Amino acid sequence: MNARIGVTVLGSTGSIGVSTLDVLGRHADRFRVVALTAHRDVEGLFQQCLRHEPDYAVMVDLDAAERLRDRLRSAGRPVETLAGAAGLERVATVPEAAYVMAAIVGAAGLLPTLAAARAGKRVLLANKEALVMAGPLFMAAAREHDAELLPIDSEHNAVFQCLPPDRAIKGLDAAGVRRILLTGSGGPFRATPLAQLTDVTPDQACAHPNWRMGRKISVDSATMMNKGLEVIEAHWLFAAPPERIEVVVHPQSVIHSMVEYEDGSVLAQLGNPDMRTPIAHALAWPGRLMSGSVFLDFARLGPLEFHAPDLARFPGLRLAFATLATGGTAPTILNAANEVAVQAFLDRRIRFTAIAAVVEWTLERVSPRGVDTLATILADDALARAVAGEWIAARASEGR
Ligand code: NAD
Ligand code: MG
After folding, report:
1. Which of 117, 193, 185 is nearest to 155 (CA)?
2. Pairwise CA distance, residues 133 & 310, whole Å
3. Shortest-distance atom of ligand 1 to CA 104
4. Disulfide check for 56: which of 24, 35, 69, 122 has CB 3.0–4.6 Å away?
5. Where residue 166 falls among pLDDT bands split at 50, 70, 90?
6. CB atoms within 10 A of CB 252
7. 201-224 in b/e burial notation, b at 16+ Cβ within 10 A?
8. Cα separation of 384 and 67, whole Å?
9. pLDDT digits (tens, 9 = 90+) for 74-114
10. pLDDT per residue as tens digits for the range 368-392
């Protein structure tokens, strides 16, 4: 009998996906890889299939799926190869996998991640955009289907660890929590003169001082929109009103976040910046597992600094808080406009400083609605993408 826990890794070729497979590979006695998925990186997924021997592999791109199928067949590997969004949803819900790592980047992760929640899986949530887009629906699905939602984002994983372990305690008040303190490094441009921000390149924006991550989240970290998305993520995960979530700039990324209690206690989770720590935590919870990360050496740590965030430098943070106050699909619109703007910046169509301008312009033009169904969310996501695209098409030629 095979008592190992089956794990599907959505987005396995990305930064979080690779770290997840590293942790799983250290504990092959406890976990078994059921499915791996990628967008179109055939070679990357092929190599992962050789190493981890999943039952299923999914390529979202149809041509890439065909090529992967051929390669696996030639190599004599019995991996069922699926294609497209339907393939993602299938492997997010197969009975062989009790755990699903949601590590696709952006809105593309919403449907399979939601499907995993509806199938009652343990969902290891890295794909914060899914929660930002569809917070109320996502949380309701998890509750209704008894899905265990374990945060992978290092800040939310830290908060989760600093909250009382008693899962029956509902809400911050019952737990005696006063505030959630989300830390953020401030990214590569924390101290760059403001006038120079208009000319920074995608490679400069992706050179994060403490973390190696995919390009989208790296740009989000440079604008601090990442922290804005994380404020929204914390709001849904911990049922925290926005006025009880505070962002603290902490350039060393050693404290991953904190919880402040009514009696004045502040609990923090510390560690070297290595995503394998929250991944191992969520895989093992409520136990613990070796992650492969290097242990903290306090004698060599040096000073830890803390500052208030500069909202003039990081307008994305202000905009994210504003969408929580507005409610409804406002965060959906923010997320969609940001994804389009970040891609345009990475494609060198707009300047770094235009990212927040695109998001603000889109928020002024698309009216948010109440979040009732998935159809409403997908419609407002599409509308916001179109509106953001108009800004970019009109201004990109002027070099703004
Ligand atoms: P990445 O760009 O390195 O990897 C993204 C993965 O998603 C790849 O496997 C890619 O093939 C897949 N993918 C991309 N577009 C897709 C599409 N349209 N359809 C299906 N699959 C697609 O990204 P990452 O840095 O690993 O981040 C993944 C998620 O985790 C993001 O939501 C990010 O915000 C979150 N996250 C990442 C980190 C980190 O350290 N990298 C930390 C916290 C949270
Ligand atoms: Mg984070």
Report:
1. 185
2. 25
3. 7
4. 35
5. confident
6. 16
7. ebeebbebebbebbbbbbbbbbbb
8. 34
9. 999 999 999 999 999 999 999 999 999 999 999 999 999 99
10. 999 989 999 999 999 999 999 999 9
Whether residue 20 has its Cβ less than 6 Å from ligand 1: no
**pLDDT average, residue stretch 8-28:** 98
Domains of the chain: 5-151 (3.40.50.720), 327-400 (1.10.1740.10)
What is residue 172's predicted lDDT score, i.e. its pLDDT?
92
What phi and psi values does residue 270 have, to the nearest 5 degrees?
Answer: -120, 160
Nearest atom, ligand 1, residue 15 CA:
26
Distance 276 CA to ligand 1 centre (A): 15
Pocket test for ligand 1, best of 49, 105, 150 (most atoms within 8 A of CB): 105
Tell me the average pLDDT of the chain: 96
Determine if ligand 1 sits within 6 Å of the CB of residue 218.
Answer: no
Looking at residue 165, what is its pLDDT? Answer: 82
Closest residue by Cα to atom 21, ligand 1, is: 39
Beta-carbon contacts of 32 under 8 Å, excluding residues fewer than 6 positions away, are: 2, 4, 5, 6, 7
- pTM of the full structure: 0.97
39 lines ligand 1 (CB under 6 A): yes
Task: State if residue 211 touches ligand 1 by the CB under 6 angstroms criterion.
Answer: yes
Give the DSSP H/E element, type plus range, for residue 184. strand 177-184
Look up residue 95 and give its two tokens. 């009975």
- Ligand 1 pocket, 105 CB below 6 A? yes
What's the confidence (pLDDT) of residue 168? Answer: 59
Does residue 386 sit in helix, strand or coil? helix
Give the number of whichever ligand sits closest to the CA of residue 212: 1
Q: What are the strands of the beta sheet with 31-38, ordered from one edge?
A: 80-83, 56-59, 31-38, 5-10, 99-102, 122-125, 148-151
Residue 317 has pLDDT above 70, yes or no: yes
